[in-house]
Amino acid sequence: MQLKRCLDNLSPLFLLIFVVVVGSCSNKGQPNTPPLKPVLNFGISIDKKFADGPFDGRILLVIAKTNDPEPRFQISDGPSSQMIFGITVDQLQAGSEVVIDSSVFGYPIQSIKNIPPGDYYIQGFLNKYTTFNLANGHTVKLHMDQGEGQQWASSPKNLFSTPQKVTINPATGGNFKISLTNEIPPIPDPVDTKYIKHVKIESKLLSEFWGRPMYLGANILLPHDWDKQPDARYPLMIFHGHFPYTFGGFSETPPDPNLKPDYSERFKIEGYNKIVQQEAYDLYKQWTGPRFPRYIAIEIQHQNPYYDDSYAVNSANLGPYGDAITYELLPYIEEQFNGIGEGWGRFLYGGSTGGWEALAAQVFYPDEYNGCFAACPDPIDFRAYTVVNLYEDENAYYLDNDYNKTPRPGHRDYLGHVQSTIQESNHKELVIGGRESRSGDQWDIWQAVYSPTGANGYPRPIWDKLTGVIDKEVANYWKENYDLSHIMQRDWAKIGKKLEGKVHIYCGDMDNYYLNNAVYLAEEFLESTTDPYYGGEVDYGDRAEHCWNGDHENPNYISRLRYNTMYLPKIKERLRKTKPRGFRLINWGI
């Protein structure tokens, strides 16, 4: 009260000076507090209606400029890809929030703080993991295929949010809430027809490895009048490749006359959908023709927790798929559908992944198959693992250089224009699947198939996924177990006679993934062989892209649709030389 009376008697000027002095004294010794920086983050939660949790998996945030298609379908290699960010979750409860902030790694932009300001569509996603207690003693968590061929964006039971349009500006921040309210529905089983059948067996070998029931399937194209000739036996043609939902490229009905022509960006052709339908109908007409060779054609379903395809070999991380296919699935098919049931009556063919598998199965099981036709195979010599020499290079992402970091290309067009780098593709996989090879994509499956198992139960990385530094110990393991060129050279004294006349390799010399580089190296060895000379074929398509398969007469967009018929003349000659005397093959003319 005394202070108040004193102040009442002071002049206005004195009061102003008093306030300033007191105010300055009250802040003495306290630092100036900078204004808070705006924070940008995205909170993703699972709707509480999903009561089957808690959930293990990978939470993904996709940010795209358009909503056509949904953002989850717009992640790819190259300049057209939209943004994605990912984080692994364990035992996530419905309703709990996972925050994607500036510390979470992304592709092709590594942090949300670097997103250009603008309007975007955002979508949250959960790629669910299943726990596997493996026979090797490890426990791993991986996505269990649900009949879609290991495609995270469309796999049934995965959860996703409805895309929402927002304005993002890292400079002003924002806290966006995303709820996973949708579940991808199941996929119906394919339907059998007169000619196409679908089989599925539980594999004892794979089930023992994975610690739970595991299955192998196949889509089967039966010979014309198969059911009318129960005593006939047919050769088995094994078309290796990516996951097939049903047998493709075969149709009993003519092309739809009302089909609206589409445009193929890959082949720069208008109406490619009509071409595909016409080729499928043409195969049906050939297949049922009176003089067409009778044989069984199959496509194998061996999708697994790492990829849409096992690469058809035994692997420390995927299990004994090579043995399971060769000794469980194929004998079952031959018994059910009148196959010959012996190695001389089996042939392998395929392109890209299927090309590698065709050659690998022939090399690892030389007595069980009578010839392989490997088109544009994935790297068959790891001195040319696309453009990386795993045994000499130190870094997979950059050329060895003291001063500059020159990126190694990952994909090109037929003119050599680079569309993506190895680093970009691997960083995309790192976002989708983390460091445990769980992206379900290309570099991760090579690593899963070829690598030894690491201390954590997952594949040992061939290189650091973030930096590209190569692990030479792992590279040597790859060399001795899966470098097909090296293995043929190392073991030629033992397997050369068994492979004589069986190895056929085709590749475009402008393959988009530089796969021709490994073929050149393998060819050098094959042409040097003696006692015996390999006696097969290696051929190249001039300026041909992925996936050229040996056809010098037709463009790739046609020949890629004719795998089931194009090697028949060479197969016929092989059968002529190797079939048992007196064995009759229907319509083969031998």
UniProtKB/TrEMBL annotation:
GO terms for molecular function: hydrolase activity. It holds the Pfam family Esterase. The keyword Acetylation does not apply. InterPro entries: AB_hydrolase_fold, Esterase-like, Mycobacterial_A85_antigen. The keyword Hydrolase applies. Keywords: Hydrolase. PANTHER family: ENTEROCHELIN ESTERASE-RELATED, IRON(III) ENTEROBACTIN ESTERASE. This is Alpha/beta hydrolase-fold protein. It comes from Imperialibacter roseus.
